[in-house]
Amino acid sequence: MVRPFSVDMLRQRLGVAKFFLNGDEKEGVITVRPKLKPYFKHVTSSENGIIRVKMERTSLEINDPEGKVMAFIDYLDGERTLEEIAQKCQMSTEDAWNGVQMLNQYNMLEALDQEPMGLTEREQLRYKNNLTYFSHYETLEESKYVFQQRLKNSKVAVLGLGSGSVIAAWLASMGVGKIIGVDFDRVELNNLNRQFFYTEDDVGELKTQATKRRLEKLNSDIQVEVHEKEIDSAAFLIDILDGVDFVVNAIDSPPVQGTRFVNAACLHHRIPAIHIAIGNTIGFFYRVTPFVNGCTDCRLLETIRNDASALDRMRRRVDGTLPKVDFGNPGFAPNVATLTALVASEVCKQLTGYHKGQQQAFTIWDVHSFQLHGKDFPRLPECPSCGSARAQQSVEPCSLAEIVDIVEGMHAR
Ligand SMILES: [Zn+2]
């Protein structure tokens, strides 16, 4: 991944009045003191005029017949300015700058600012391994501490505390500063086959209360807020989601409409969300970035437009003739654990920006082959929730009858 590198950002960070890349313009002082990450010092070798940098999944090869590049890399010790390095290596400052940019694109350089930001000593200790992990993704402009600080400053709502309780646990361990949980159910014995954040002692207790107690035990540095109620409208969520940075939707009822309520509330506040579901052969989650990619209703329209049997089921749901059949819940511990961990990983990427995350918005995980498949679903102009023809007057999603009408209109064109 090649990161955009902003000279302005660097200038701002260093407080340098002017920053010149062109050797002919000798104004200002270049005070950047780049440092190669210790890990890369360890994996970089030079032989027969070729430098090899062995990384986990790739390796870099750089032709270096005169040994100048290796000398350049050796001088990246955090002690010397770019100008001093350029002089030592008998190269122009511009060449040295280009070299630094190139190494920075491969995340090979430490951030210039190694201050622990607003992290307490206890947090630095608690998240020591997070920081080690993030250090592999830091660049000159963004340190590992910035990523952890972003988690600390984040407010995430987890809706549905069944498999959502496991996601909430991942987020609390990572250091997400505030977690808001919503559910109306009580812990049942049959939840314990997969919702391992609960114990037998919790059976019969409200999931919200059990989750709050356990999250606070898991991480007393974070804030936990819970709301006991079934999500039966978008309006119910409006106040709860105010100021939230990210929503994880793991509710399973009411079917179809529940997720549409969440979608409508997230669109109202323009909060990105991940919606998650698990079956017996696949699990999936999809990310909605409001008004950028497709939303839950876009997906619903796309699905029933292209699947006659899905449209038929929707029609029967609307006219009340779809029989209510309870197939039970196929939630199985390893499947729930894997899918929730994937979602937590994606949420972390979206909150911190240490990585841009899944390229495609919709991710399907195959329970048996363990493979991930990605696909996109577009934002549809016909969407009543995020499309150009959406109704502005109500925060609630339109009725399912209207969804059917829209699809029939799309078929008629
Ligand atoms: Zn939409």
Summarize the helices and strands and which ones pair or pack.
Elements: H1 7-14, H2 38-43, E1 44-47, E2 50-54, E3 59-63, H3 68-75, H4 82-88, H5 93-105, H6 121-126, H7 128-135, H8 144-152, E4 155-159, H9 163-174, E5 178-183, H10 207-218, E6 223-228, H11 235-240, E7 246-249, H12 257-269, E8 273-278, E9 282-288, H13 296-306, H14 308-319, H15 333-352, E10 362-366, E11 372-375, H16 400-412
Helix pairs in contact: 4-5, 7-8, 9-10, 9-15, 13-14, 13-16, 14-16
Bound molecules: zinc ion.
What would your notes on this structure say?
The chain has about 425 residues and is of the alpha/beta class. The protein folds into two domains: about 5-105, Outer Surface Protein A, domain 3; about 155-410, NAD(P)-binding Rossmann-like Domain (Rossmann fold), CATH 3.40.50.720. Helices cover about 40% and strands about 15% of the residues. The protein is built from 16 helices and eleven strands. It has helices at about 5-15, 40-45, 70-75, 80-90, 95-105, 120-125, 130-135, 145-150, 165-175, 205-220, 235-240, 255-270, 295-305, 310-320, 335-350, 400-410, and strands at about 45, 50-55, 60-65, 155-160, 180-185, 225-230, 245-250, 275-280, 280-290, 360-365, 370-375. An eight-stranded mixed sheet has the order 6-5-4-7-8-9-10-11, sandwiched between helices. A three-stranded antiparallel sheet has the order 1-2-3. A hairpin with a 2-residue loop joins strand 1 (about 45) and strand 2 (about 50-55). The protein starts with 6 loop residues before the first helix and ends with a helix. Mean pLDDT is about 90; it is low at about 1-5 and about 15-30. The structure holds zinc ion. The site of zinc ion has 9 residues, from helix 13.
